[in-house]
Automatic annotation (TrEMBL):
Disordered, as annotated region: 39-64, 84-109
Lineage: Eukaryota, Metazoa, Chordata, Craniata, Vertebrata
Coiled coil: 408-442, 515-639
Residue ranges annotated for the Rab-GAP TBC domain, each copy included: 149-334
Bias type Low complexity, positions: 89-109
Protein name (record): EVI5 protein
Listed SUPFAM superfamilies: Ypt/Rab-GAP domain of gyp1p
InterPro entries on file: Rab-GAP-TBC_dom, Rab-GAP_TBC_sf, Rab_GAP_TBC_domain
GO molecular function per UniProt: GTPase activator activity; small GTPase binding
């Protein structure tokens, strides 16, 4: 297998490197004659230092078996694309930075470089062979080595060892998964052409790179149907395929999704991405308060520039050699490096960002920041580890975010509950109205039956009328407020946008000016055509009688012909110049129209944000009105209950008084 063969080769490296050191000068001198460019020299140097097949000739004192030679050829083919970039050839201490030119120019520099690379290869070969013991006993030292950079030829095996993906049962299912059909195939095919479009391995349509990338993404979409396929994950898989075959890349990607929080990031809800944005924003607020305030004032949300950092681990932000170094550390330490590098980038660019508006900051993130570290990633890595990262505080922020999201869910449930209660309250109001109507009927009956309680019944009727009036007034006030809000919204929507009208007028004036310039140019061209036609007629008139003229006159005529030819050429040149100017004016007009469209779109986005804030404030006001209506309804219920109880008590008192009077009358009658 790939792993066993790699370990076998690593065991033979120590014996083979001594021979390479003695023969490298002779090999370089042979190859230097074929070098036509620095890139070719660099490739030659890479071939000599990576023990590729041409170096291990049959006359070599250290012989390898045909299987080993075949394996080394495969290794060289897998790593060929990245080796053409000088930045990807840096060793642990940056010793490969100028390896191509130094090997060709100086044999002593060649021996020093080989010595450093030999030490690096022996060290990493020992780590790979004794991985279990090294990981347990020297985990800190391994982390430090990874931060300095994994040698390119060891990346494949070291990445698999770091994420424990070298012996996964799912690897045996890979070929079966490729035979199945995934519902995400169309989406994957659509996005493959956008993944590393300038990289040689992926840029050709239906190339080997695009095919293996499609295979891995399709296989994972079948394994994890909840996540399926998410745009952005293809960049991570593409980087893995640059280092290892597709089966190993599939296993490593599965491990990354399961153990490195990537699965939560790529879920349809993207809840983990929201958590990362919240944590990162809190870090900015703590470490860069001025920049945080500036971002808030410009409505420059964290997700506008940092979401791709977390979803692609900077693979779409930095050039590949720098992003690969960051990915080395991500494989060892997880998402912590993304927070560190992100904050380090903001610290380095704080002064420039504070001077820019939202559009300027977006341009800065897209065009300036990606090329700030072209000289090498060491400065960025050092700055990122000077950032204070508190794991306990991040856990606390995670709890806070969970609490906030839970409260938001509870508020939504509460709104639904309030709406239900409002509907029930309306039903109860109707019931109370019916009860009060029946109570009024009873009072009328009492009024007819007993003249004694007439004043009392009138008083109760007045109180009931007042209660109904106050209830009706509250309903009317609520309805008036809602009508006013709707009317104001209609007014705002019907009013024309003065800024848009002014911009459209400016565009119209500019177009008219350019049209006038074009008409002037057309008039000038027409005048020149007329002049040329007159000259041509004169020329024809002269040439008809030229054979009769003396030689001197013929010479003058020839000069006039040449002058006519020059004028014709001049007219053609002026016509071409006018046409070019006209095209330039059309392009400028189109450019101005596009910029105005963009400005209007930004204005619409700002208006929509304001409308969202206004609607949220309106929602809060309506909730407050609902609570107030609920409170008033409760008061009305209490009052109505108290009134009913008072009526019953008074009625009982009246009956008791009547009974006493009747008894008194009976006693008087007896007397």
């Amino acid at each position: 297998s790939w792993q066993v063969a790699t370990e076998k080769v690593a065991g033979k490296l120590s014996s083979t490197l001594s021979w390479v050191k003695n023969t490298v000068s002779h090999t370089v001198s042979q190859m230097a004659s074929q070098v036509a460019s620095p890139s070719a020299s660099l490739h030659t140097t890479s071939s000599s230092t990576t023990l590729s097949t041409p170096v291990l000739s049959p006359s070599s004192p250290t012989q390898l078996s045909p299987d080993d030679l075949e394996l080394l050829a495969k290794l060289e083919e897998q790593n060929r694309l990245l080796e053409t970039d000088s930045k990807s050839l840096r060793s642990v201490n940056g010793s490969r930075r100028n390896s191509g030119s130094s090997l060709v120019s100086s044999s002593s520099a060649s021996s020093n470089l080989s010595h450093l690379e030999e030490d690096s290869w022996i060290l990493w070969g020992r780590i790979v062979n004794e991985w279990e013991d090294v990981r347990k006993k020297k985990e800190k030292q391994v982390k430090e080595l990874v931060r300095k950079g994994i040698p390119h030829h060891f990346r494949a095996i070291v990445w698999q060892l770091l994420c424990s993906a070298q012996s996964m049962p799912i690897k045996d299912q890979y070929s079966e998964l490729l035979k199945m059909t995934s519902p995400c195939e169309k989406l994957i095919r659509r996005d493959i052409a956008r993944t590393y479009p300038e990289h040689d391995f992926f840029k050709e349509k239906d190339s080997l790179g695009q095919e293996v990338l499609f295979n891995v993404m399709k296989a994972y979409s079948l394994v994890d149907r909840e996540v399926g396929y998410c745009q952005g994950s293809a960049f991570i898989v593409g980087l893995l395929l640059m280092q290892m075959p597709e089966e190993e890349a599939f296993c490593v990607f599965v491990k990354l999704m399961q153990d490195y929080r990537l699965r939560e990031l790529f879920k349809p809800s993207m809840a983990e991405l929201g958590l990362c944005m919240y944590q990162f924003e809190c870090m900015i607020q703590e470490h860069l308060p001025e920049l945080y305030v500036h971002f808030q004032s410009q409505s420059f949300h964290t997700s506008m520039y940092a979401s791709s950092w977390f979803l692609t681990i900077f693979l779409t932000t930095f050039p590949l050699p720098i992003a690969t170094r960051v990915f080395d550390i991500f494989m060892s330490e997880g998402l912590e490096i993304v927070f560190r590098v992100g904050l380090a980038v903001l610290q380095m660019n704080q002064a420039e960002l504070l001077q820019l508006d939202m559009e300027g900051m977006l341009q800065h993130f897209q065009k300036v920041i990606p090329h700030q570290f072209d000289s090498g990633p060491d400065k960025l890595i050092q700055a990122s580890y000077q950032v204070k990262y508190n794991a306990k505080k991040m856990k606390k922020l995670e709890k806070e975010y969970t609490t906030i999201k839970t409260k938001e869910m509870e508020e939504q449930v509460e709104i639904k509950r309030l709406r239900t209660e409002n509907r029930l309250l309306k039903q109860r109001i109707e019931t109370l109205e019916k009860e009060s109507a029946s109570l009024a009927d009873r009072l009328i009956q009492h009024k007819c039956s007993s003249q004694y309680s007439e004043d009392f019944v009138l008083q109760l009727e007045k109180e009931l009328v007042q209660a109904r009036l106050s209830e009706a007034e509250s309903h009317c006030a609520l309805k008036e407020m809602q009508d006013k809000v709707l009317e104001m919204e209609k007014r705002n929507s019907s009013l024309p946008d003065e800024e848009n009208i002014a911009r459209l007028q400016e565009e119209l004036i500019a177009v008219k000016l350019r049209e006038a310039e074009a008409l002037m140019g057309l008039k000038e061209l027409r005048q020149q055509v007329k002049d040329l036609e007159e000259h041509w007629q004169r020329h024809l008139a002269r040439t008809t009688g030229r054979w009769k003229d003396p030689p001197r006159k013929n010479t003058v005529n020839e000069l006039q012909d040449e002058l006519m030819t020059v004028r014709l050429r001049e007219a053609e040149a002026q016509a071409e110049l006018k046409e070019t100017k006209q095209r330039m004016m059309e392009m400028e007009t189109q450019n101005q129209i596009n910029s105005n469209h963009l400005r209007r779109a930004e204005q619409e986005v700002t208006n929509l944000q304001g409308k969202v804030q206004y609607l949220s404030a309106q929602n809060k006001g309506l909730l407050a009105q609902l609570n107030e209506a609920k409170r008033r309804q409760a008061e009305i219920e209490c009052k109505s209950k108290e009134e009913v109880m008072a009526v019953r008590l008074r009625e009982a008192d009246r009956i008791a008084a009547v009974a006493e009077l009747q008894q008194h009358i009976a006693e008087l009658e007896i007397q």
